[in-house]
Amino acid sequence: MMQDLRPSFDLKAFAQAGEVIVKPGRLLLQTGPREGMAVLLRHGRFAEIDEAGALCARHPGLAVADLPRHLLMPGFIDSHTHLTQSLGKSLVFGEPSEIFRRIWVPLEGSLDEHMVHLSSRLAALECLRGGFTTAVDAGTRSAGHIGRLTEAAHETGLRLVVGQICNDLGGAAQVPEPEQIIRTAEAHLARWQGDALVHPSLAISIPEAASDAMLRRISAMAAAAGAIFQTHVNEHLVAVERSLVAHGRRPLEHLAHLGALGPQVLIAHSTLVTPQELNILRDTGTAVAYNPVASVWKGNAIAPALQMAALGVRFGLGTDGTRADGFRLMDAAEALQRAGYGLASGDSSCGAGWLWLQAATAMAADAAGLGAVTGRIAEGLAADFLLVDLDRPEFTPSHDLSWELVRYGNRDQIDAVFTNGRLRLLHGWPVDWDARALLEEVRALAVPAIAGAPIQRIHPTADSQLAARAS
Question: Which of 85, 191, 87, 192 is nearest to 139 (CA)?
Answer without folding.
Answer: 85
